[in-house]
Protein 1
Amino acid sequence: MKDYSLLIDRESIPRHVAIIMDGNGRWARRRSLPRVEGHRRGAQVIESLMDTAIDLGIEVVSLYAFSTENWSRPKDEIAGIWRLLEMFFEANIDAIMKKGVLLRHSGSMRRLPASTRRIIEESVARTRGNRAITLNFCLNYGGRQELVEAVNAWAASKRQGEKLTERSFERHLYTAGLPDVDLLIRTSGERRVSNFLLWQIAYAEMIFTSVLWPDFRPRHLYRMIYEYQQRDRRFGGL
Ligand code: IPE
Ligand code: IPE
Ligand code: MG
């Protein structure tokens, strides 16, 4: 396979890459392992991904880790996902600090187990001064929920007669202050958005791959950044 990292133009790196990390369950099933083992191997992919994203100079990586629709899964799978996330933050916080990763959370903290909520809040607070890259964990995230919450938050804070604008609206999104998504990646062969960052992907380039998330490696990301750079982004112009 070609080494795409050498072909990439370092001057035109996408600022914000959003990833729908899909296919953990199928990865496990193919090996006759429990689904949670797929989630465990999937979580391990994130560390090398951070290094690659920092090497490329990507400003923001958003990771879809749990959707508002994922509550419809069996209770024990959901509990396993929270446990793994807690372990991820515990095991990686030192590396995250050393690499200079700023952590954010997008989504609702409601319904999350207290222990998960605490470790996320602590980790986010600890990394507040970091500047190398922003890692935006989308947990209990739903695009429609985000839009509705933003409208309500704006309505509660608006001055009399004030009209909603795109800019004032964006300040109430979970992703306030982050740039729009330039590149949306989805693994596992599904070609849908599944309620992810609906507002922010308005002009995103999309890349779908059949690679299952636990098999995702730095070389895949390099190849996708190269593919992104071959696209002609017109934003409605000529
Ligand atoms: C993505 O993998 C992780 C989460 C949604 C939490 P899946 O668990 O959806 O894996 P598949 O789609 O069943 O293979
Ligand atoms: C999307 O994957 C959510 C995450 C990756 C966290 P799903 O597996 O839940 O999406 P659908 O159900 O296939 O659309
Ligand atoms: Mg899935």
Protein 2
Amino acid sequence: MHDVDIQIKEIERALHNEEFRFYFQPKVSFVTGKILGGEALLRWILPDGSVIMPDRFLPQAEKSGLITDITAVMLPSLIEEIEAIRSIRPDVQVAFNVSALDLHSPYLIKMLRSFIGARRIDPGNLQIEITESAVVEASQRIQATLNELVELGIEIVMDDFGTGYSSLDVLSRLPFSAIKLDQGVVRRMSEDAKNTQIVRSSLSMARELSIKTVAEGVETKGVYVYLMASGCDAVQGFWISRPIPCNDFISLLEENRKWPSSSLGLLYTAWMNHNSYRNQVLDSVYALALTEKEEWNHLPKTDLVHSPARCRLGGWYLSEARGNGGSAQFKLLEAPHRYMHAAGETLVNAALDGGSPDDIRQAIKAFIDYSEAVDAEVGNIVERWLGEALDGEE
Ligand code: C2E
Ligand code: CA
Ligand code: CA
């Protein structure tokens, strides 16, 4: 069949003949190296067994509006497959792509609510992927649908991140819990440093906003380990597996295979979050010192997390220490980190309460000293881990 030959009538017929199937592409956690779930991708299987890829029929289906029929017909069969997958892995996360048209009408929510109400799946078993371009002009209707999905407990993922124009604005307005780095940008990292920079700044921005990150289009081990070290959360790509039929996906889950993993990225992410706290404290004190009290309610709003347990670095060593039977090496980080956050609170309060310049100067010094102690300890941990990785290579 030739591209231009695919008519809407053909697609409708195929839908009624049940020629559409989902293939599943696994998504692996960089932290555990295990499969977390997968993405459901539409395939048109002709009676002779040949497969037509979505880019050959979805654009027409989208233009004609038939896409909403495809979603409505395919969603129940996807739920059935998720039920089968759940019997192997109850916490599996299957991502499903929806178009802007699907978000315009209430049927998507209605169907999902009934599947979840009937306890056939947990809301955590399903994620909805939408592209930025589908929601740039987010109408009130689309916003309302997205909010309802989130209320149901379903996560929304922004697909193809790094290709759009207004990602930041859209990200802050809509309830996304993760971004998926565009596969083209990820693939071109091996050719062009600019793409590497786009990926790195997307990862760091997501970190600042506490949004999870998934990389797509990973075709080589080199790109895989680079993203792992950069603190990306999860990964999809041909290097792990192509999209495969549901039964094969279930067999893959049963194998319980493990890909390379490292908690270095997790530490890196936690440390960045902690550094962002340090910079925000210093910037706030600086801004307070340079302005009159009357000006203070015009200062940009910040979210200073003084509690050490709520800092990601605090969360990191708590969970590492737990996982390693309270291992002493993480304990060395605990005290300076706790003191630093306490010093941060004292410093900001001194600046707010109009403490004397000397008090503030002293508070700044204490804060910076503890901050350096934290950095040195993180450096020690990283050095030890890299050493272990090199030993492993010998
Ligand atoms: P997408 O959502 O960005 O999906 C990822 C595409 O990248 C998939 O193509 C996948 O096979 C491909 N891919 C994944 N890893 C690699 C890799 O390492 N290298 C390369 N070269 N490609 C990789 P696919 O299955 O052809 O899907 C194309 C697009 O069709 C999807 O892009 C999505 O926008 C759309 N689509 C697929 N299924 C559905 C669906 O059920 N509903 C809707 N509305 N759209 C769908
Ligand atoms: Ca997708
Ligand atoms: Ca994508």
